[in-house]
Amino acid sequence: MSRTDAILKRLSQLHPKLIDLSLDRMMPLLAELGDPQEHLPPTIHVAGTNAKGSTIAYLRAFLEAAGKSVHVYNSPHLVRFNERIRLAGTLVDTRRLNATLEHVETVNAGRPITFFEITTVSALLLYAETPADYLLLETGMGGTYDTTNVIRQPLGTIITPIDLDHQAFLGNTVAEIAVSKAGIFKRGSKAVIGLQREEARPVLDRAARRLSIVPVWQGEDFHCSRQDGRLVFQDENGLLDLPPPALLGTHQFENAALAIAASRHFGLPIDNAAFERGLRNVTWPARLMPLHGKLRDLLPAGAELWLDGGHNAHGAAALAVALAAMNQRRKAPRVLIMGMMNTRAPADFLAPFKGMVSEVLTLTIPGETNAHGADFITREARKMGFEARPMRSVVTALKAAAELPDARVLICGSLYLAGDVLARNGTPPD
């Protein structure tokens, strides 16, 4: 076990629950550390169910193309914990990460605090200590009581599409979940809101207006379309004709548009040339990502291997659209290799793929005690009419997929599975 893993294991044992949404444990600890949340660069706070990471990836790409240095906070990580904390453009150095985690652990002095709370405090301390032009801050879960919701006056807030997820903590309806997400709105901070289901719209609107915020809404105040393969964006400031985003899938046009609108509404120093460079250079691992390397070599030459960390119904719907578009360009048998955490229903994820895939090969995510078993996912898939069978590992699943000539294989269902795949493939995020 590495030193980082040993520290993280200790921190995970400070509270009996993995998730206990509250800010009451964090605030005293932050105060003892000098309130680092009060000493951050201009911050853009992002909440939502889907597309948070992609939207932040675009914002980072635009700002860096404009010559700005950017902190980023994302979760969960795929392979290494360092991926969660990007300092002025570079993943945090392991030695500095360890020193900061141990310092915060010492100051906390054994008091109950969740893993995500104490690691977020550590991240905020690192961001306060390191000069940068901007901080892009992703919520972990919800908004009101999320550990990141300690920024009193962000430069701006973004709400990406809201859907059903984490119902045990956030509510059983989209409207209830929207109440939690809207908790990141702050009086005096601007807000941009992505495409929303009908139930979420009035909730977000009321929450914003209570704080005298007039949000900018995707689909009303700004629009994007795909024309001749290019991204055409329009808001009250005019029209932009831009190259397509480097991230694949039709949904990425909408995600890019949300980031462009936020950049313009928040007054970020990004010109058209920086938007163009950012769209061409943006990266976000395990989001409809073509996979090359050791695992790809298990498939025959004519096959394709894709990896996506999508894990809920909304993400599955976007993936299904992307697969359909791929099939228009080249028809191929489609195989899902799928693992899921037990907080989500396999049937909800699989529904958008009905009639689209030749077979579902199921996995138990390695090392995850809260993962669905492969046999359970197989039974659920068969109930829906899919051809499905359980596999011992991603390697055996790929060998089974290789039986179909020229197959298009998609590994999906969980970010934890995506991280395991990237580690096995020898291609962790930089």
Commentary on this structure:
It is a single chain. With 430 residues, this protein is an alpha/beta fold. It has two domains: 3-281, UDP-N-acetylmuramoyl-L-alanine:D-glutamate ligase (3-Layer(aba) Sandwich); 289-425, Protein-Tyrosine Phosphatase, Chain A, CATH 3.90.190.20. It has helices at residues 3-12, 26-32, 52-65, 94-108, 115-129, 167-170, 174-181, 200-210, 251-265, 272-281, 313-329, 346-350, 374-383, 394-401, 415-425; strands spanning 43-47, 70-73, 85-87, 90-91, 134-138, 156-159, 190-193, 216-217, 223-227, 230-235, 238-242, 289-290, 304-307, 334-338, 359-362, 388-390, 408-412. The strands form three sheets. An eight-stranded mixed beta sheet has the order 4-3-2-5-1-6-7-8, with helices on both faces. Strands 12-13-17-14-15-16 form a six-stranded mixed beta sheet, with helices on both faces. A three-stranded antiparallel beta sheet has the order 9-10-11, covered by helices on one side. β10 (230-235) and β11 form a beta hairpin. α1 (3-12) packs parallel to α4. InterPro entries: Folylpolyglutamate_synth, Folylpolyglutamate_synth_CS, Mur-like_cat_sf, Mur_ligase_C_dom_sf, Mur_ligase_cen. It holds the Pfam family Mur_ligase_M. Its EC number is 6.3.2.17. Its cofactor is Mg(2+).
